Amino acid sequence: xxxxxxxxxxxxxxxxxxxxxxxxxxxxxxxxxxxxxxxxxxxxxxxxxxxxxxxxxxxxxxxxxxxxxxxxxxxxxxxxxxxxxxxxxxxxxxxxxxxxxxxxxxxxxxxxxxxxxxxxxxxxxxxxxxxxxxxxxxxxxxxxxxxxxxxxxxxxxxxxxxxxxxxxxxx
Length: 171
Fold this sequence. Notes:
The chain is mainly alpha-helical. Helix content is about 70%, strand content about 0%.
């Protein structure tokens, strides 16, 4: 953006030293630094806002195209299902018109195939959960957990414990 080299910076510093004075120069330099920082943050915020608005516009366009494709798919599915329903109703009407029926109940009940007859009706057993003994399961604490947490499996007196862990004398 600006082509400022080291020599130009030194010239600007020397002029500022003469014009502002050595007492006020550090305070002015700090103020200029904070102002430049604020300006950079403002510029970066504006860039981020512009990028967000552009991405938002792109997302809106993508959303509209996806919604249009979904509507087209939905319409094609509805048209195909209505065609299938129409064809199925025509086929069933043709079957009813062409087939001579001896009794209307034999076609509707499915007795020819054994669906409605009492001889093939099966008793469906009800589901029973295989219950386990939850008291045993809750009380069962693994031995490694007991050993790690310091739970005593056997009760010992203090003297017995000292005797147990006392180092043996060399013979």
